[in-house]
Amino acid sequence: MTPSSPATPSGASETPWLDSDAFDELDAILDDLRSRYDETPQWEFCEGFMAAVICSRRPIPAAEYLSVLLDIPADGETQGEAPEAESGSFASDAQRERFLALWNQRWKEVETALDSEVDSLEDDNGYHPEVMDVRGAVADMPPGEQAAFKGEELPAFAQVWALGFMFAVESWPEEWATPRDKDAAKWLDGALQAVVAMTEDDEAAPEVSPLSEDGAPSTSIARLNAFGEAIWAVYDLRELWKTMGPRVETVRKEATPGRNDLCYCGSGRKYKKCHGAG
Q1: Which of 127, 142, 152, 243 lies deepest, with the highest CB count within 10 Å?
Q2: What is the pTM of this model?
Q3: Which of 164-173, 219-228, 259-268 has the lowest mean pLDDT?
């Protein structure tokens, strides 16, 4: 996880930022959900997904996006006929309420951060995704414990976060459709490409530990720079869709036949003497 959370930004809610214990609690709930639905994602994936939904052109309601992310029924709905192994479910109403309370708090934090004016990614008021350095964590393990991960493909730094972000983008393609305005289209494409780059593996030699000053090198400097570009890209996407606003549906009116045209009903008569009469 990332280092300790920053203090509540000035002008934001007095509610404290989620601390490491709160994120551990979210992980525990997701682990429990995973025991009933094995495709339940890790929190890092949820973190990226949340950022994308917040940035989406259309405000997407929780009942809609949570069913996509966790495959759980909307509040008040039944589980349906799907077997537990094919659909997610909370263990109890209390567990659901606690998850949503933590989720909504994190949502407010991310939303506040993305709407803040920051000059540096080091700014305490900025957006700091909760991401893991799995490769670094394994590298710091004793040799005996490292052996358990031998041959496994461990995700690169922030890769799961980026996959979660793009999963949301791909789940609502109409909300991420290319704008007609050329400058806006270029803006959108560049920002999305920066996030997509983070979904790829980090194949360069590890040079630094991104989350610990004294940790084992696990990430390339190029990867770390790309992560910074991806964070700025999220800011760009938030600003782009806020500036453009929700899509406006075009209402297309069917053409009315001319009075001397054949009627659309297929009668063979002129429109003015058929459905156009009167």
Answers
A1: 127
A2: 0.80
A3: 259-268
Judge contact between 126 and 17, C-beta under 8 A: no
Distance (Å, whole) CA 277 – CA 203? 73
168's tokens: 């949301």
Beta strands in the chain (DSSP E): none
What is the SS3 string spanning 19-43?
Answer: CHHHHHHHHHHHHHHHCCCCCCCCH
Q: Are 127 and 9 in contact (CB under 8 A)?
A: no
User: Which tokens is 133 given?
Assistant: 């350095």
How many angstroms separate the CA atoms of 157 and 141, rounded?
A: 17
Alpha carbon distance 82, 276 (integer Å): 52
191 exposed, middle or buried (CB, 10 Å; 0-12, 13-18, 19+)? buried
Is 37 within 8 Å of 88 (Cβ atoms)? yes
Helix axes 93-114, 221-244, angle to 10 degrees: 90
> For residue 266, what pLDDT band results from cuts at 50, 70 and 90?
low
Strand partners, 218: none
The answer to whether the beta carbons of residues 201 and 159 sit under 8 Å apart is yes
Check residue 267 and report its DSSP letter.
S
Nearest to 100 by CA among 77, 72, 79, 124: 72
Judge whether 172 and 55 are in contact, CB under 8 Å: no
DSSP string, 140-152: TS-HHHHGGGTT-
